[in-house]
Amino acid sequence: MQQLRRLITIAYVFIKYRLDDFVPVHLLPWYLRLAFYLAPWRLNPLPKRMPKEKRLRLALIKLGPIFIKFGQILSTRRDLLSPKLAAELAKLQDKVPPFSSRLAKNIIEQALEDDVSKIFARFDTDPLASASIAQVHAAQLLSGEEVVVKVIRPNIERTIEKDIRLMLVAARLFQRYARDGKRLKPIEVVEDYRHTIFGELDLMSEAANCAQLRRNFQDSPLLYVPDVYWDWCRENVMVQERIYGTPIGDVETLISKGTNMKVLAERGVEIFFRQVFQDSFFHADMHPGNIFVDCQDPESPRYIAIDCGIVGTLSEVDQDYLARNLLAFFNQDYHEVARLHVESGWVGAETRINEFEGAIRSVCEPIFEKPLEEISFGQLLLRLFQVARRYNMEVQPQLVLLQKTLLNIEGLGRQLYPQLDLWSTAKPYLESWMKRRMGPQAIWQEIKRQAPAWIAHGPQMPELIRNSLISFNQYPQHQAQLNKRLENIESSLDGQAKGRKHRAVGTLVAALGLVSLHTPYMWDAQASSSLIALGIAWILLRG
Ligand SMILES: Nc1ncnc2c1ncn2[C@@H]1O[C@H](COP(=O)(O)OP(=O)(O)OP(=O)(O)O)[C@@H](O)[C@H]1O
Questions:
Q1: Predicted confidence band at 188 (pLDDT cuts at 50, 70, 90)?
Q2: Cα–Cα distance list, 491 to 482, 503, 537 (Å)
Q3: Residue 179: half-sphere exposure toward Cβ, Cα within 13 Å
Q4: Going by CA atoms, what residue is nearest to atom 8 of ligand 1?
Q5: 134 known ligand binder
Q6: φ and ψ at 93, to 5 degrees?
């Protein structure tokens, strides 16, 4: 029944905002097309005066937080949407009315199994922020620390599940009937969203991500991540150190505090590349609401990151892919890019390198038309993925996540300091990464990494060798080879032993001749010389 009511609401919003403009009517079967043209909503011309992208944004707001968040995430898929639609959806803000503080307290008390007044010296009933998934309250621990308490909205899981089911129905219809239905992969996009949003519901996993990121940047002047109070963390409640930075989007305040905007913008890029190439662990939800700046030293501004619900990790293969390709790209060596793809099996071995190189060149050259400081790494990667997909390369979701984060970071950096030269900030990172990866130190590190395993296996070595020989023996052809080799070895050993014997006899005979030659009255000189000659001949011929 509830589902039906929700469906009616969606239909109403669809009609109200005339979202039929997104439906390619000419591709529908004739009866649906007829129904479409006769539909009474077509008499509602009012919203038509508004661009359809704006109408879609307003419709998502009307449908509530789950749809708003979907729109926000969708806005980062610039590989799928038109620039106009992506820009419009990026305006979505998931500020939603808070739920009651009484309810928030109940959830906290149930999760932490204690009274709020026994856990906190102070608990602010007015929430600090209220978003689609969670609400945040400021508080103070009994030990005096200022903290924030993040509480997941009640019953949000059921709401998400229901809304996503409806989104999937819409996605299936879209995939079936829309002109771009297959290319835009709507079902995959919705499934992806389901995965992301459910991931955000587990605050224990968010707390663990925060702790890891904090450790990675311990003592770094670049980034600060607030501490987590594990004793007070559960799946739906998280208590974290409160931070007091300036929101990164508040450029006016940052400037008024005398912040060095160039350093700030460069540090953003540095943080990103360090996360990717040093730690292989990156904050993947770097929207302005999650980034603050500590301006205590305006010449050395430090980033503060919160909300580590979405993080990305890269395998060594992904890192390798990224670093080598970015370096080759910036040297405009498209042949190298194409070769790398084929060599590492990212695209099929049958791919013609020259043809692939041409395809990459044609999408990248226009980008390099611009001055270096205007080139977008994110766009570049996006283009590369698009070409690679045409050549049947499955781009890993982690790389797509990274590319979206990179677009965010770049946008942010250029907003702070429009002349930001990403390449000169990133190049040293990439190059030192390559050196670290390929240089003697990397080999030494690898030996060090493997050594414990080798040592651990040391005592089992004879057994391992024996086992390998046994398994080797199991193959008849190998056995025959092995037997042959053994025979060869035996006969060679045999030969060597015989040779040694003959050499000994020859030496003995020659030595006897020598002795008799120098011993008066033993034999005459001729007999002695004959003995010496016989001994030498014996050695030469039989030894
Ligand atoms: N440690 C903190 N110290 C101070 N303020 C905080 C802290 N954590 C969160 N906030 C405030 O609460 C707001 C929402 O927090 P957070 O981003 O973690 O929630 P969210 O529900 O995951 O939101 P979204 O996913 O929409 O970004 C932040 O924008 C910030 O203003």
A1: confident
A2: 14, 18, 24
A3: 6
A4: 306
A5: yes
A6: -120, 130
Cβ–ligand 1 distance for 136 under 6 Å, the answer yes
Q: Is 395 annotated as a binding residue?
A: no
Q: Which two structure tokens, joined as six digits, stand for 348?
A: 């099929």
The residue behind tokens 């998280």 is 238
Q: Which two tokens stand for residue 528?
A: 């002695």
Residue to mutate, 126, 128, 146, ligand 1, most ligand atoms under 8 Å from C-beta: 128
Supply the pTM of this predicted model: 0.71
**Residues catalogued as catalytic:** 285
Those residues with Cβ within 8 angstroms of residue 50's Cβ, 6 or more apart along the chain or in another chain? 58
The confidence band for 404, taking pLDDT boundaries of 50, 70 and 90, is: confident
Q: Residue 18 region, left (φ>0) first, then alpha (ψ -120 to 50), else beta?
A: left
Distance between CA atoms of 288 and 136, rounded to whole angstroms? 17
Take atom 2 of ligand 1 and give the residue whose Cα is closest: 242
Every domain of the chain and the residues it spans: 2-96+157-198, 312-438, 440-471, 476-542
136 in a known ligand binding site: yes
The answer to whether residue 476 scores a pLDDT higher than 60 is no
DSSP 97-142: PPPPHHHHHHHHHHHHTS-HHHHEEEE-SS-SEE-SSEEEEEEEET
Is 207 touching ligand 1 by the criterion CB < 6 Å? no
Task: Say whether pLDDT at 232 is over 90.
Answer: yes
> Would you tell me the crossing angle of helices 422-438 and 316-330 to the nearest 10 degrees?
130
Answer whether residue 400 shows pLDDT above 90.
Answer: no
Mean of pLDDT values over 433-443: 71
Residue 458 has a pLDDT of 64
ipTM field? 0.96
Q: Is the CB of 227 under 6 A from ligand 1?
A: no
Beta carbon of 129 within 6 Å of any ligand 1 atom: yes
- Residue 142's alpha-carbon distances to 105, 147, 151, 314, 510, in angstroms, are 17, 11, 19, 40, 104
